[in-house]
Amino acid sequence: MSMDVYFATSNRNKFLEAYEILSKLGIILKWLRITKVEIQSDLLDEIAKKSALEIAKRTGKHIVVEDDGLFIEALNGFPGPYSSFVYRTIGLKGVLKLLEGVEDRVAYFKSVVAYAEPNGFVKTFEGRIDGTISLEPRGEEGFGYDPIFIPESYNKTFAELGLKIKNTISHRRRAFENFAKWYIESRRTIQKSF
Ligand code: ITT
Residue 176: which residues within 8 A CB-CB, separation 6 or more? Predict the structure, then answer.
């Protein structure tokens, strides 16, 4: 009865983290390695939903996509949904430059996971982690903004803390955990009705 779930992402690190998180919860994720066409929107939720639905319809598979953003309070939530573009253009250095002399360095990461089926069904799940932006990049592990993000109740960046700790507290962990709880329950309900 159960069908494979494919994670459509161009980002290997995102796939590996999600795979690790879900495999502990009994779901084996497959990787659909594609670059998505993303709509322009201020809402991660909208972007994730539209991509997941489009890919599910096109491929005939059960699809998850995940859209993330780093929201920095002193910059009114920038880069938020534009995090990928900002990372590729001004990078960590550019972001730190925007925060030069800024004392309030509060920020959060948000993840929206959208699950879609070829029949048009789509549902989203969210995860968030609060923290602050460091004064300089620190640490070797992880990817993206990990060297400058210090999660709440730690004094090290995600890149210093390493994947094991990151995967127990991250925005991704929380969003995929919410997805897994719902998915496992919904499969049970389907099986019972047969
Ligand atoms: P796909 O859209 O193909 O899945 P992407 O790398 O473009 O891959 P996002 O748009 O979701 O992924 O990510 C926005 C940016 O945030 C991007 O630059 C990522 O590197 C960064 N990012 C996402 N999750 C992160 C994490 O857990 N730690 C650090 N940076 C992260």
Answer: 18, 21, 22, 66, 111, 113, 125, 127
In this structure, is the dihedral angle defined by the CA atoms of residues 126, 178, 114 and 86, taken in order, positive or negative?
positive
Alpha-carbon gap, residue 19 to 40, rounded angstroms: 27
Which domain CATH number covers 51?
Answer: 3.90.950.10
CA–CA separation, 67 and 34 (whole Å): 14
Q: Measured from the CA of 86, which atom of ligand 1 is nearest?
A: 18
Cα-Cα-Cα-Cα dihedral sign, residues 147, 150, 151, 156: positive
The reported pTM is: 0.94
Predicted confidence pLDDT, tens digits, the chain (194 residues): 457 999 999 999 999 999 999 999 999 999 999 877 777 777 889 999 999 999 999 999 999 999 999 999 999 999 999 999 999 999 999 999 999 999 999 999 999 999 999 999 999 999 999 999 999 999 999 999 999 999 999 999 999 999 999 999 999 999 999 999 999 999 887 767 76
Active site residue 45: no
Of these residues, 4, 42, 45, 67, which one is catalytic? 67
Per the structure, the complete domain to which residue 116 belongs is given by: 5-192
Q: In this structure, which residue's CA is closest to atom 7 in ligand 1? A: 84
